[in-house]
Amino acid sequence: MSETTAKTIAADLSPHAYQRAAEFLSGLDEDWARHIATIGPCRLEAKPAREPYEALVRAIAYQQLHAKAGDAILGRLLALYPDASFPSPEQMLATAPERQRACGFSAAKLATIRGIAQATLDGIVPGLEEAQHLPDAMLIERLVPLRGVGRWTVEMLLIYSLERSDILPVDDFGVREGYARLKGLVKAPTPRQMREIGVAWSPFRTVAAWYLWRLPVR
Asked: Which of 32, 83, 107, 132 has the fewest C-beta atoms under 10 angstroms from its C-beta?
């Protein structure tokens, strides 16, 4: 495996890695140093035992919703499967769509969730063991063609399930607005600008994103 490929699958979101990342980012300039000192240690909580299928479904469930609303909708879905900690792809597809819609999903979101379940059975969505050995770019390329699954959704999988340490979701509103607040900008950078700015934060872009999420939106 090449050095470049190895870096793309670096999975280290341990407390020690958080400390190294915070020290690196604090050394960039006074704005980063002040913000990190105010927030304190990074407390990003990953779920490394979570299968990619489940991580993707959860990301879709919360997409464009406040956490409380997402919790409620996902809770109603899980209640349909009292004997499982999370419904399997087979269970998801065997349930009448009308029952799942009643949980609060839009037609588009439900179609995406059921599509993820089918793609898992078809081998397109990899299992956890396989995903752990696939580079970031390869996972993104493999999954974004699925209906309703965008780059942001896959990046949430990379961060919260696969513990990838150098992910910057530039399409994320909170990341771009957070950077605008950090730097006192009138206008938030575009995704393309954010990607260019974030190059300087590698290899700790995941932790940088977490700190940017801690800045209040205007």
From this structure: 83
Considering the segment(s) 3-46+167-213 as one domain, its CATH architecture is Orthogonal Bundle (1.10)
d(CA 152, CA 167): 10
pLDDT of residue 49: 84
How many Cβ atoms are within 10 Å of 83's Cβ, its own excluded? 6
Using the Cα atoms of residue 19, residue 210, residue 157 and residue 54 in order, give the sign of their dihedral.
positive
Tell me how long the chain is: 218
136-177 pLDDT, tens per residue?
Answer: 999 999 999 999 999 999 999 999 999 999 999 999 999 999
List the catalytic residue out of 29, 31, 136, 172. Answer: 172
* Architecture of the structural domain at 52-160: Orthogonal Bundle (1.10)
Residues 6+ apart with CB under 8 A from 153: 56, 59, 60, 63, 143
Is the overall model pTM greater than 0.70, yes or no?
Answer: yes
